[in-house]
Automatic annotation (TrEMBL):
It comes from Brevundimonas vancanneytii. The keyword DNA repair does not apply. Pfam families: adh_short. InterPro entries: KR_dom, NAD(P)-bd_dom_sf, Peroxisomal_Beta-Oxidation, Sc_DH/Rdtase_CS, SDR_fam. PANTHER family: DEHYDROGENASES, SHORT CHAIN (PTHR45024), SCP2 DOMAIN-CONTAINING PROTEIN (PTHR45024:SF2). This is Short-chain type dehydrogenase/reductase Rv0148. The lineage of its organism: Bacteria, Pseudomonadati, Pseudomonadota, Alphaproteobacteria, Caulobacterales. Belongs to the short-chain dehydrogenases/reductases (SDR) family. Residues 9-195 form the Ketoreductase domain. Coiled coil: none annotated. It is an enzyme of class 1 (oxidoreductase). The keyword Oxidoreductase applies. GO terms for molecular function: oxidoreductase activity. Its EC number is 1.1.1.-. Keywords: Oxidoreductase.
Length: 300
């Protein structure tokens, strides 16, 4: 068991009925957190048939504290309802883990706008609804831990995942922005980019990969990012099979160019090592220096 202690903390986990979300909810509860377990109720399901109820009951059976929330994250008030459930049931809120997402696997020419809207409504706006509801509370108490879920499809693009990838790119950008805005109020926001067996990936993973890349291998990272021990902010961490790596945007040093030199210039830039920046302001100020101009603020 990890050394992370979440005793006395309260978390919301969306998409927590199955797969990664369920593993996160169980993992946070095992480390002492009370958990609001969110997963939407499907048509015709009784309370006892819902995956959210199943996860919440599993937590209670193990001696933990949990309450099920059956709302769809697509609903505009879904975040407010989950925050209210946390406060009414447990008296506080410290952690939000935005995990809910909608699958998509079709070429851009075969993906209609309704599918795009659905994927964005769940993956991005569902995340936004929760974070926007929790944000004022975190600011008021001067503490909060935000863990969002992104994907390599959002950073690199992936054939057949135009809607899903774009929604994850939006989540990643929102996470970095909230990290910048929340730091002064004790709010840390980071994103997890998981590689793990789930309903979305089971059709793509070889059996040997699936055996090693189980959801429980991602849980220790999510637990640490959710804790007061967390020391990073605004980062994207790739997790899979018990291995972890940092991911993020990079920019190469700039070069002068014109229409006649772009082919050679782009070839050169493709092999030039890039660097990351702490903010968009730092990225622009670095370009000013490379152009022989004074930066707007001193560079680190």
């Amino acid at each position: 068991m990890s050394g992370v202690d979440l005793s006395g903390r309260v978390a919301i986990v969306t998409g927590a009925g199955k797969g990664l979300g369920r593993a996160y909810a169980l993992g946070l509860a095992a480390r002492g957190a009370a958990v609001v377990v969110n997963n939407r109720r499907h048509a015709g399901e009784s309370t006892e048939e819902t995956s959210a109820w199943s996860t919440a009951e599993a937590i209670k059976a193990a001696g933990g504290r949990a309450v099920a929330n059956f709302g769809s994250v697509e609903a505009e008030d879904s975040g407010l309802v989950m925050v209210r459930d946390a406060l009414d049931t447990f008296g506080r809120l410290d952690i939000v883990v935005a995990n809910a997402a909608a699958p998509q696997a079709a070429g851009f020419n075969k993906t209609d706008l309704a599918t795009f809207r659905h994927v964005f409504n769940v993956g991005f706006l569902g995340t936004l609804n929760l974070l926007h509801a929790a944000w004022p509370l975190f600011r008021e108490v001067g503490y909060g831990r935000i863990v969002t879920t992104t994907s390599s499809a959002g950073r690199f693009g992936q054939h057949g995942l135009s809607a899903y990838g774009a929604s994850k790119a939006a989540v990643e950008s929102l996470t970095r922005t909230l990290a910048a805005e929340g730091a002064r109020n004790g709010i840390l926001a980071n994103a997890v980019s998981p590689y793990a067996l789930s309903q979305m990936t089971e059709g793509y993973m070889r059996s040997d990969v699936a055996e090693r890349f189980t959801p429980d291998k991602v849980v220790p990272l999510v637990a640490w990012l959710s804790s007061q021990d967390c020391t990073i902010n605004g980062e994207v961490i790739v997790a899979g099979g018990g291995r972890f790596r940092r991911a993020g945007p990079v920019e190469t040093p700039s070069r002068e160019g014109d229409e006649g030199s772009f082919a050679a210039l782009m070839s050169d830039l493709a092999t030039t090592p890039g660097r990351s920046f702490s903010s968009s302001n730092q990225a622009f100020d670095t370009l000013l220096v490379e152009a022989g101009l004074e930066p707007r603020a001193p560079l680190d």
